[in-house]
Design brief:
By secondary structure, this protein is of the alpha+beta class. The protein contains ten helices and 27 strands.
């Protein structure tokens, strides 16, 4: 049994997020041999942990598996807003899915916020939960017209919203909507609290266990991770995007969003949540950590592996300094999310997957809400209980009109990068042409490489071909990772899978001390 010493919660990038401070270590017992679990859940973010707890509460024997530590992925990098309004606006949902769908989602989001609060209270989790007012504001006439449409559709869906004359932050506006009973919390403290209850109820956890593949035979899933094979009657992929090449890889576009945690000279921290309507939009809230108050400012989103992350941080910092009197920027980090082609997440039976296998993906910027909602839907599906939202959010749904052009454009973009990124790389004569702690896609002695030189000057050469679908990765100088522009696979500087759908590491290529590729090693 592990002791209760504190440890740092790692996440999927070089930049530390506000949530990664020391947390009590989980008391995880070794697995008993020859157990066939009722459900094996892969992925230790808010989706996986909540799903595991809900099923364990209902009497199922569950195993939760995580490639790194709990909260390593997007849960460790979220800005942790909890909203009853969504990135897919209610006018869009009305148009694409119908007004009843909007009403269903409005009810569900309100229930999820209450469920999170209830878990925190019942389990006595110190997760900094607070109800907040949220302001959505326009800054030009076109945005104001959109706001009016959002106001009407939100009210019809049953959301508490009104027009007001302030936006809660010192940024000019034209029109403002106020959404009541929104919330914020500390995501890592929350999921660790859920995990402790899961263990208390008899659930099992495997951290630092990367699942390589699974096989289904005789109604049992055999999940292989290194020299470990576990068995389960049901399998849940709570990995943000399911692994491998499948229809969900094609229906979700990977994006990165950027966050700053800053201190203000005047100490006047907003006591609200706020959002503008730019594209991409900015989002704001305050949070206190260990007695220090911070303002969180997020935005500058772009597709993973496309734009320059350092330029995104620079643009966000410039915006922040133009609008707030900042004394210091203490944290800056980025995180990944997936945008579904028709606006709503995919939660349910894995289309094209094995029997009794389930997925949850396409949360857009509402991961804390939809991750928690996924747990409720998946629990009902596994238990055979009818759930009103299961049909609406089914991964097998077909929407021939809604999202079709986005679907076409997204996959055309993937095809473009598959071809175009194979050309125009920088030709170098030696690894000496790279600075320490620098990565580049280069051509060296006729060989295309993903080349990184560490802080000690040691070069690491990898094949730049993503092991997921064969696209060429790009260097993320901020998070120190190789990011795929097609489906969002991300790799460490030594080629290991960091996040996303790939299952295999980038191929390692040995190079001579002179910096030339070792041709023998390529045979």
């Amino acid at each position: 049994m592990e002791n209760r010493t504190d440890l740092m919660s790692a996440r999927d990038g070089e930049n530390e997020s506000l949530w990664q401070g020391s947390h009590p270590r989980l008391e995880i017992k070794p697995l008993k041999e020859n157990i066939i679990y009722d459900v094996v859940i892969i992925g230790g973010g808010i989706t996986g942990v909540t799903t595991a707890l809900e099923l364990q509460r209902k009497g199922k024997k569950c195993l939760l598996m995580e490639a790194q530590n709990l909260g390593f992925g997007t849960t460790g990098g979220t800005s942790a807003h909890l909203n009853t309004f969504l990135d897919a606006t209610y006018p869009e949902i009305d148009s694409d899915f119908g007004k009843e769908a909007s009403a269903q989602l409005a009810r569900a989001t309100k229930e999820i916020i209450e469920m999170i609060r209830s878990n925190i209270n019942a389990l006595e989790i110190d997760a900094d939960f607070e109800y907040k007012d949220a302001f959505l504001f326009s800054q030009n006439q076109e945005e104001t017209e959109q706001l009016k449409s959002i106001l009407s559709s939100s009210r019809q869906a049953g959301v508490k919203v009104s027009e007001v004359l302030e936006n809660g932050i010192p940024i000019d506006f034209q029109h403002v909507l106020l959404f009541k009973e929104q919330a914020q919390f500390h995501p890592i403290k929350y999921i660790l609290g859920l995990a402790r209850e899961f263990l208390k109820l008899g659930g099992d956890i495997l951290e630092h266990t990367f699942v390589e593949n699974s096989e289904y035979k005789d109604e049992i899933h055999y999940i292989k991770a290194g020299n470990i094979t576990v068995q389960g009657r049901h399998l849940v992929w709570a990995t943000h995007i399911p692994p491998g090449i499948n229809i969900l890889s094609l229906r979700n576009a990977p994006y990165r969003s950027y966050v700053l945690a800053v201190k203000l000279k005047n100490g006047d921290y907003p006591n609200c949540l706020a959002y503008d309507m730019q594209e991409p939009y900015h989002y704001f809230r305050s949070h206190e950590i260990d007695g220090d108050q911070y303002l969180l400012i997020g935005g500058a989103d772009h597709k993973t592996g496309h734009d320059d992350p350092e330029k995104a941080f620079s643009a966000l910092e410039k915006y922040a300094r133009e609008n707030f009197d900042i004394s210091s920027i203490d944290y800056r980090w980025s995180s990944q999310y997936y945008v579904p082609v028709d606006g709503l997440p995919y939660i349910g039976q894995f289309p094209g997957g094995d029997a009794n296998s389930f997925v949850a993906t396409g949360f857009n910027g509402n991961g804390m809400i939809f991750g928690s909602l996924s747990a409720m839907i998946l629990t009902d599906l596994i238990l055979g209980i009818e759930n009103d939202l299961a049909k609406l959010l089914s991964p097998s749904r077909l929407k021939p009109i809604s999202g079709f052009m986005d679907f076409v454009q997204e996959n055309a973009d993937v095809a473009y990068h598959f071809v175009a990124d194979r050309f125009g790389t920088e030709i170098i004569q030696s690894t000496k042409e790279l600075e320490n702690d620098e990565g580049k896609i280069v051509e060296l002695d006729g060989k295309k490489l993903a080349l990184y030189k560490d802080l000690n000057g040691q070069a690491i050469a990898l094949s730049p071909v993503c092991t997921h679908a064969g696209c060429i990765v790009n260097w993320n100088a901020s998070e120190k990772s190789w990011d795929c522009p097609c489906h969002g696979g991300r790799f460490t500087t030594d080629g290991k899978v960091l996040t996303g759908p790939p299952r295999k590491a980038l191929e390692r290529i040995e190079i001579q001390k002179t910096g030339q590729p070792d041709k023998k090693a390529q045979l």
